[in-house]
Write a structure and sequence with these properties.
The protein has 147 residues and is an alpha+beta fold. The chain has helices at residues 44-49, 71-91, 93-113, 141-145; strands at 3-7, 16-19, 28-30, 37-39, 63-67, 116-120, 126-128. The protein has 4 helices and 7 strands. A 5-stranded antiparallel sheet has the order 2-1-7-6-5, with no helix packed on it. A two-stranded antiparallel ribbon has the order 3-4. The protein is elongated. The chain binds zinc ion (2 copies).
Length: 147
């Protein structure tokens, strides 16, 4: 099932709206914060294949795929290991290097395990748990600058 996550399009409301399964959504949903109804353009590809071919929020056709990496977690692991190794360097050099190596492995593990998320260049809506569209590529700065 496809799940969408995006910021409410009605300014000044910037509530984060999460909705799923998208393939069963109607033509609009209501923002839980400002209660404004907003149009959702669920395409045939979304309903039938759980695949994003066009952004349901802004109808933009340019989307990119990125790793769904929780950056806060990765940073925290490195930070904790960094502090631990500073303390350990005074007493046990081997353990200090071990702490750093473990942190790197944990981060690498995270990186390999996390799923991928399709993101809209124009409105940054995120789509999870669906099928990846082979027409989409990784993030491209040139394309991004158009928006
Ligand atoms: Zn809202
Ligand atoms: Zn969009």
């Amino acid at each position: 099932m496809l799940q969408i996550r995006y910021n409410c399009q009605k300014s000044p409301c910037v509530a984060i709206i999460e909705y799923g399964p998208l393939e069963e959504a109607g033509s609009s949903i209501e923002c839980p914060r400002c209660h404004e109804s907003q149009a959702l353009h669920v395409t045939a590809a979304m309903r039938d294949e759980e695949k994003v071919d066009r952004c349901a929020v802004c109808q933009c056709r340019e989307l990119f795929i990125r790793k769904d990496f929780p950056q806060g977690v990765g940073l925290a692991v490195v930070l904790i290991a960094g502090i631990a190794s500073i303390i350990l360097f005074r007493s046990n050099l081997l353990l200090a290097y071990g702490a750093l190596a473990t942190a790197m492995l944990v981060d690498l593990g995270f990186y390999l395990c996390v799923g991928k998320v399709t993101t809209c260049y124009a409105c940054r809506a995120e789509y999870r748990n669906g099928q990846l569209n082979s027409a989409h590529d990784g993030f491209d700065l040139g394309t991004s600058e158009k928006y």
